[in-house]
TrEMBL record:
Organism: Equus asinus
Needed co-factor(s): thiamine diphosphate
Name used for this protein in its record: oxoglutarate dehydrogenase (succinyl-transferring)
GO CC terms in record: mitochondrion; oxoglutarate dehydrogenase complex
Self-association and partners: The OGDHC complex comprises multiple copies of three catalytic enzyme components, the 2-oxoglutarate dehydrogenase (OGDH/E1), the dihydrolipoamide dehydrogenase (DLST/E2) and the dihydrolipoamide dehydrogenase (DLD/E3). OGDHL/E1-like isoenzyme may replace OGDH in the OGDHC complex in the brain. The presence of either ODGH/E1 or ODGHL/E1-like isoenzyme in the complex may depend on its tissular distribution.
UniProt cross-references to Pfam families, sorted A to Z: 2-oxogl_dehyd_N (PF16078), E1_dh (PF00676), OxoGdeHyase_C (PF16870), Transket_pyr (PF02779)
Gene: OGDHL
Molecular function in Gene Ontology: oxoglutarate dehydrogenase (succinyl-transferring) activity; thiamine pyrophosphate binding
Amino acid sequence: MMSQLRLLPSRLGAQALRLLAPRDVQVFNWCSRSTGPPATFPSSKHGGGSSYMEEMYFAWLENPQSVHKSWDSFFRKASEEASCGLAQPRIPSVIPESRPAVSSRTKTSKLVEDHLAVQSLIRAYQIRGHHVAQLDPLGILDADLDSFVPSDLITTIDKLAFYDLREADLDKEFQLPTTTFIGGSEHTLSLREIIRRLESTYCQHIGLEFMFINDVEQCQWIRQKFETPGVMQFSSEEKRTLLARLVRSMRFEDFLARKWSSEKRFGLEGCEVMIPALKTIIDKSSEMGIENVILGMPHRGRLNVLANVIRKDLEQIFCQFDPKLEAADEGSGDVKYHLGMYHERINRVTNRNITLSLVANPSHLEAVDPVVQGKTKAEQFYRGDAQGRKIGFTTDPRMARSSPYPTDVARVVNAPIFHVNADDPEAVMYVCSVAAEWRNTFNKDVVVDLVCYRRRGHNEMDEPMFTQPLMYKQIHRQVPVLKKYADKLIAEGTVTLQEFEEEIAKYDRICEEAYGRSKDKKILHIKHWLDSPWPGFFNVDGEPKSMTCPATGIPEDVLTHIGDVASSVPLEDFKIHTGLSRILRGREDMIKKRTVDWALAEYMAFGSLLKEGIHVRLSGQDVERGTFSHRHHVLHDQEVDRRTCVPMNHLWPDQAPYTVCNSSLSEYGVLGFELGYAMASPNALVLWEAQFGDFHNTAQCIIDQFISTGQAKWVRHNGIVLLLPHGMEGMGPEHSSARPERFLQMSNDDSDAYPAFTEDFEVCQLYDCNWIVVNCSTPASYFHVLRRQILLPFRKPLIIFTPKSLLRHPEAKSSFDQMVSGTSFQRVIPEDGAAARAPEQVQRLIFCTGKVYYDLVKERSSQGLEEQVAITRLEQISPFPFDLIKQEAEKYRGAELVWCQEEHKNMGYYDYISPRFMTILSRARPIWYVGRDPAAAPATGNRNTHLVSLKKFLDTAFNLQAFEGKTF
């Protein structure tokens, strides 16, 4: 069928045709008698013998059934054209029964090839037209940074020659394929008009990239939206609205420039059209039922977006420029062009409620992108919106891109890309409207590439002429988009000059009045800038929540029930792997013995929270099974492909949902996504697990900018949990250390401040800290800290250094007695053996954390020093448990104090705990270091070296004469 046939110029071979044919159309099998596809696709026009198409035609004449039905249909049409002498194919009623004369054959072949050439020409514009589109408002750079023009799109004469067409063919009528809409209601057009309409659609101020999408319907949808003649028309009212929005965008920047000329504003000058663009997207989305819009953006233009899109009070924005602004009521705050905002309002165009949220973002420009996506996903989840229907620096771009466009990454996910010249406001509005409609129609991503310029430098104090003199000479001459568009509307009679000037004066008055009100505000409450408020979370019946840390244990029957489900398969006729059957039987045995290992303790923590209505979400690399094959939260049927079972979702009929999902190998993006997810609701336990703890280093930006400092900068409580497998086990430098020293260095508790030990000391510490860092040594401890994370009356990020070898260590088990009602998380687990019963006889008290405890206990036993050496574990490292450490030190007054860690001395915990020990002991007693020597790499890659260093520091830990004669 001609509408489906997609052939390249006949000079290309059939193999090339297969490679270059788009995936959104059918590629037909070559059917010529009994032979296979030819190695070449020769054409008599370019040498090489008789035309392959002619051979196909003659084969069809002899037997129409010998070729594919599409060729049959096509040659039926072509035969009628030949008999009628027309260029419009119609299906003939009778199939010719004999071969025509040679002249007829030549005429038919030419007719067929000319039609194919025109279709190839149309396709060339659809695929490559964006390369020659006029996208740069300054007219000095190609938007794709490449001055090369495809040879089939250079000039009319050249493109005709490329497709073996002649100038005489320009006025010939051609049948239009159904894969183009340039004809509107017409089915034929002259070649001259075809080219004119293609140039108008694809080579002006809009550049379209979409032909890589492998879906016919979606490609057709885009072609119809942009190719249909007269489709980009605006009413007088729409044009006036657009002008008014441009006025607000530009005059806001002008107002800031007049009032605070020496302040950094990171203004939007040069891209003022972004404000009406965003408002168009919101209007169109609201019209189609969207209720919630979440935005993420860098600092460029953020104040303008806050003012004119989110509709934040102008006096609140102007207040931020006051040099005498007093400190916020809590937290350090951040610069004005990093802050976020949340606002529910009526959309004036659609008269519907809409919620707008601009997520706060640091100077790391695109760090907010995954956060916004995660927050959006969470909003959809909690709203039950499964279909998703509600919801540059001063561097030459030629030096800053690894691909032609900054949007090329969108090709990976089959998202269409609409490039548009920012100095054509109507083109921008149309593109944005289509983008919103695409999102609503297909529930898929879409990218609008707004090609603009920056009228000033990186900030308002910067001089861009240093690095880009020619560009900024042109920018200085550039007429602002507001003036150009106003002149256009005045010339066409849509508005008068007086109306335009009145619109400007009206907004200027609004700004001046807000400026006056802003002077009366002495303190700016930073909570006005929250991007994720949690209504009702911090109060109960209008009163603040009680600052208590409740017990985290649960009834034994709940533990048993969860354990029974964890050791079974809830679905019938579900065949699991035999190795997994052994694991489930092992769990069943533990339940009978009232004990749990690490995986079962986690199962019970998650399951109990689900019972209490708390949504639990776990993501990371291979988390469904667990990196160390210990978790198995998703069971796979061994006989039915893709049939899975999540037993955690079969605990109780009315439980909250459990979400567990393996993530891609991109810690930066995934951790940002989960952080955004955790922002949406406080009533969820959101956890991200690194495959190995040190893999978090590629997500350090998210940790530094959002997790460590989020509350201090933006008053943003967040309860995200990071699970970081950690432990020196001879696995090499990339699979050992979760870098605890980094997290502890960023902890905000004061090492030199001697605290006041009040009754609520623990919960006050937790409330004041920026995050919680723990290294659990028992499954029960892990169980309790996960539950405490939700039961606290506030939210703090929780960093957990999880084990590897302890997952199956025979001694790393906990009894139900340590998890039942009335039990709680122990920040410090004191010695409970022989040494504890006679503390006055103890010669050395070793403090440690995590896995090394089991090495120490084993070594102590082998040396028979159970009465002389006590071992105390820190389960919570930050905030530092001053009160409990003081109790332990006083209990063993005559003992030497030692800190033992398996990490190197310049890593791990020593630099954090040492000054805090000195504070609590008033420097009266030293605390000695035992562990590995300082090193550059976090661990050795040699197993023998690892074991030698382990034996060395364990020997030192129990050498009771090791520190004699040394001074502190």
